[in-house]
Amino acid sequence: MLTAKAALFVALGAFFVGYVAIWIAGSRATSSTRTEESVPGAPGLIHYAIGFVTNFFDTLGIGSFATTTAAFRFWRLVPDRIIPGTLNVGHTPPTVAQAFIFIAIVQVEMQTLVMMIAASVLGAWLGAGIVAGWSRRNVQVGMGAALLAAATLMTMTQLNVMPGGGATLGVSGLLLALGVVGNFLLGALMTMGIGLYAPCMILVSLLGMNPTAAFPIMMGSCAFLMPVGSARFVRIGSYQLRSAIGLALGGVPAVLIAAPIVGKLSLYAVRWLVVVVVIYTATSMLRSAMVGAAVSGDGAAEPAI
After folding, report:
1. What is the pLDDT of residue 303?
2. Which residues of the chain have pLDDT under 50?
3. Predicted pLDDT of residue 242
4. Angle at the Cα of 203 (from 199 to 208), degrees rounded to 5?
5. Measured between alpha carbons, how far is 81 from 134 in angstroms, rounded to an integer?
């Protein structure tokens, strides 16, 4: 008979296989109707490099969505409107690898882990259905605000403002209910590009749990919710294929390299650098949204990036 953890691994494997099947089928189905902004093509070295670097630091707990968004905008690789879909589709394989590793090596109470993961998946399913159909300006405003929120959370972490947490590896009763609701909301926000890691760490600490328990919870949540959210982006072609492939193929080796050195590197300066980059990217997106609104008068026409 399978243990609870083994059953979770089987379910994660099934989710990933389903994600790959949907991605392949969706790519073929939308190839004839794909818009110019999401036209397929072979990834370049820059796509693989972004996937490697962002997922290396993602494995260390910094997160990958904000940094990837900054890279996409700096090198003008992905139009703003389809950045959320590209992030979710491309970062899924590395995140699944992280989940397998950290669920295996970090102890956490299984009921807490499973229920918080399930809540995040439901949130992602509902959130992706909304975000996938957004206009470019709505994505710019939404992601700009989300990135500023992420920068605030990162700054709180750096300044030790966030709660320190407790010693427990699970919760029950009211605290578990609050954790489930919180992770549901984080799953929905994940599809908009805010990332789940920093807010999930804060949520786990607020619940009085050991902060290390956040690793399997946040990575397990992302590993299950991202295939679900990605399916909705893939079905309507709301992502860029070559950048997503670059993130996936560049990211998995980075995870395998970074996982053994978690906790051995000083990331203080790196996190401050990420905060600066995220704030710049957020203000850039919001400025683009305002320019588009000013040009059209109602936000209908938007400048290309």
Report:
1. 35
2. 36, 298-305
3. 94
4. 150
5. 7
Instruction: Answer positive or negative: Cα dihedral of 144, 192, 196, 206.
Output: positive
pLDDT at 290: 87
Torsion sign, CA atoms 154, 158, 162, 163: positive
Query: What are the residues whose beta carbons fall under 8 Å from the beta carbon of 158, sequence distance 6 or more?
Result: 268, 271, 272, 275
Please name the residues in contact with 295: beta carbons below 8 A apart, sequence gap of 6 or more: 301, 302, 303
- For tokens 């990217």, what's the residue? 281
Q: Which runs of E-coded beta strand occur in 51-204?
A: none
pLDDT tens digits, residue range 51-62? 999 999 899 878
pLDDT at 63: 82
Buried b / exposed e over 106-142, threshold 16 CB at 10 Å, is bebebebbbbbbbbbbbbbbbbbeebbebebbbbbbb
- Measured CA to CA, the distance from residue 137 to residue 153 in angstroms comes to 24
The beta-carbon contacts of 11-15 under 8 Å, at least 24 apart in sequence, are 11/224, 12/96, 12/99, 12/100, 12/103, 12/220, 12/223, 12/224, 15/96, 15/223, 15/224, 15/227, 15/228
pTM of the predicted structure, to 2 decimals? 0.82
User: Does residue 135 sit in helix, strand or coil?
Assistant: coil
Q: What is the pLDDT of residue 205?
A: 78
Phi, psi of 168 (to 5 degrees): -75, 155
CA 189 to chain CA centroid, Å, is 9
Structure tokens at 215: 């690793």
pLDDT digits (tens, 9 = 90+) for 254-265: 999 999 987 676
Binning the chain into helix, strand and coil, the percentages to the nearest 5 are 75, 0, 25
∠36-37-38 over CA atoms, to 5°?
Answer: 95
Distance CA 251, CA 143 (A): 22
85: CB partners within 8 A, 6+ apart: 131, 132, 230, 233, 234, 238, 239
